[in-house]
Amino acid sequence: MFRRSVLVREATHAGDAAEEITPAEFNVRTLVHEYGGGAFTVSGDVVVFSNYEDQRLYKQSIKGDHVPIALTPDYGAPVVRYADGVIDLHLGCYITVREDHRESDTNPTTTIISVELNGVGKTEPHVLVSGSDFYAFPRLASDGRRMAWIEWKHPNMPWDKSELWVGYLSADGKIEKRVCIAGDDPNMIESPTEPKWSSQGELFFVTDRKSGFWNLYKWVESTNEVQALYPLDAEFTRPSWEFGYSSYAFVEHKGQNNIIACTYRQKGLSYLGILDHVLGSFSLVDLPFTDIYNITSIGSHLYIDGASPRHPLSIMKVSIEENQVAMSGISIIWSSSSLNISEYNAYISSPEIIEFPTKVPGQTAFAYLYLPSNSNYQGFEDEKPPLLVESHGGPTSESGAALNLSIQYWTSRGWAFADVNYGGSSGYSRQYRERLNASWGIVDVDDCCSCAEFLVSTGRVDGERLCITGKSAGGYTTLAALVFRKTFKAGASLFGVADLALLKADMPKFESYYTDSLVGKDESLLYDRSPINFVDKLSCPIILFQGLEDKVVLPEQARKIYAAVKEKGLPVALIEYEGEQHGFRKAENIKHTLEQQMVFFARLIGKFKAADDIIPVHIENFD
Fold this sequence. Notes:
Blueprint: E1 8-9, E2 19-20, E3 40-43, E4 46-50, E5 57-61, E6 69-70, E7 80-88, E8 93-100, E9 109-116, E10 126-129, E11 134-140, E12 146-152, E13 163-169, E14 175-182, E15 193-197, E16 203-207, E17 215-220, E18 225-228, E19 248-253, E20 256-266, E21 269-276, E22 281-285, E23 291-298, E24 301-308, E25 311-321, E26 324-325, E27 331-335, E28 352-357, E29 364-370, E30 387-391, H1 405-411, E31 416-421, H2 430-433, H3 443-457, E32 466-471, H4 473-484, E33 490-494, H5 500-506, H6 514-518, H7 523-528, E34 542-547, H8 555-568, E35 572-577, H9 587-605
Parallel strand pairs: 30-31, 30-32, 32-33, 33-34, 34-35
Antiparallel strand pairs: 1-2, 3-4, 4-5, 5-6, 7-8, 8-9, 9-10, 11-12, 12-13, 13-14, 15-16, 16-17, 17-18, 19-20, 20-21, 21-22, 23-24, 24-25, 25-26, 25-27, 28-29, 29-31
Helix pairs in contact: 3-4
């Protein structure tokens, strides 16, 4: 079954089911930057969204049974994409980021445009801002006369270096003047993001200037200066892989709007804080979430997107009163799982945050360790569990402590599982993030190996049954660890990178210079860090999984490593999925991938039999 993204309206009465408002023939999803995000905007009773099949923008009234109306032209193919928009009530238009592939699919043009809301999908949108390589977060002040946005240029990723701009709009909606608020100082590298206007017309944003931590700031328009609101060694946002992130929101209470609800990451956990930016007071809110992703608000109500080790990804509604949370006003209005998780507590492994030494003297990295947990079974006293290490994707990303049933699949079947936030991960400061600069395939690999070795040396896991898995960039770390190190006995790569030169040649525009910072511009470096070129060093089995419609890591990558490993005579299997892109979305494929990893490791590293009745795929050089 293919997953479809839809818009859902909160139930009017407690206990009622939420209402799906997206018609069956529509799928709310954009492909800007290939990763999407920011696919819809709601204003009053109107929603504007991007439809996956044709990538056009549609307007829909959410009152009654109204058919969506196309706002943008039909170009005969999904060659023009839109993301991260806002509705301009003053001029009756929709302001959004446009990615135009009509002239070039490898180097599409990105602009900020204005689309008429009363059009019939035939009028070409008006370009408001152009000239930079990338744009995000176009945000209008309530007076309709000022617009903020983020822009950045090659070779940077948005978390490397970006700029925050404000444009002053004329009565007919054109930008007459613009000023750079943050990011243009040649003596200071920063990456501002998430600009938002308060109802009083003040501009707030997040940036990592000076301290290296993404903190909240306010722009003083009269002097064109910025002020830090609450300096803290914590990350108040995350890398903009997708559009539409929202890490803070204004809370209106009794006519006051000086309260900001914000979330931040610190040492592997998320926190929710209430900041009075006028008084400078800050208080923490006790919530059952350890991982918070997005916050939005309506009046004095917060809607929080988060999870914890025993709460699946959910949306929580919270009421704010007198700068505190009214505990009676907390409720879960949507959950990603219909399971009553409390019934399975005896089977759920909660993570332990571990800090372990890296190869660099005096330096440490972090991981979440999940130990086996199953109330029906217990391991032998003299036997330690096998370990599966996961290297997350990105690589500029972060693993969290949220309930992940895929991890629980392993721990409920006797495995220990280590989810590693290697050097280069987000959530720990710019300095930690930049450990990976020019060192991808070295620092991440060493940290994953160091984590496994640390767990062996402390007696937590079996050193003879160490395996590693990863997706995308994590798949590259997996392959590199298996080829360039001897720590692991087997591995699984999910749409992972085997050839860095091929990756660089095929990368979409958004990431087209990413390997320059992660590895270097020299082709010899790309060659030396590519597992495909050193298969002769590989000495253990590997299983590969690949989506055939992947535009980020092309199927050729998996096929090349498969052919090379097969030729060397090592056990190897390749599973390809029709209709899957960069990240598997079909439930049956996600399940099949987990099961085949389990049975592959069971057969190849021995000492245990898979608990489930799984029909294994054919393994070359083994079956």
